[in-house]
Amino acid sequence: GMTLYQITFTLNFLALFITLWLGLYLVSRSPRSSTAWLTALTLWSVGGLFVNVLLALAPPPVVPERLWWHGLLFPFWAANTINQGASAWLQGWLLGSSVVFWHHATMLMRPGKMNAWRWTRVIAGYIVGIAGVVLQYNAKIFTAVKGGDPLYINSLSAGPYYYFFAFVILVLTVLSAVNLTRSARVAATNIAKRQLQTLAIGSLVTV
Description:
Layout: H1 4-29, H2 34-57, H3 70-73, H4 96-109, H5 116-137, E1 142-144, E2 156-158, H6 162-185, H7 190-206
Antiparallel strand pairs: 1-2
Helix pairs in contact: 1-2, 2-4, 4-5, 4-6, 6-7
């Protein structure tokens, strides 16, 4: 039978393929829709988590010195990640980015136009998302456990900013669900209403 390593690698590879394909499908069907693009960015950002795992399971070879092209291929991982062991690759892309994109998408789904208050919430979300990427580049949110096995969740530990960002991501997730619920209340058809309600529940469950 398949080993735990093979099962984990296969599942993460398939999940990455599905998120990439679904995102491309959405933007190909509605190339001029901002909501479609933001939903695709949400899916692609989720795919970044699977990239983390795949790199941890099959890391690039260790090199004696920093390579100039490392930043081009792995822009969200610290420059010394390649020499820190397999678990260090789990420190890259964060789920928070997908939540920020999804929060923006659900804001566009709400009835009415984007006013100053809605834009303030969207911009605040992006500021937090960018801050998270910068801090995680320096392993301030998640930190790899030295010698940890990437097949197990104990290979990562909470960094100094983990609880703050966990709280912010939870708030954005709840706000996204609220946006979808409000959109469902004024949906023109029962099918659209049920779809929005399902998305609202799914937003909460995934986090």
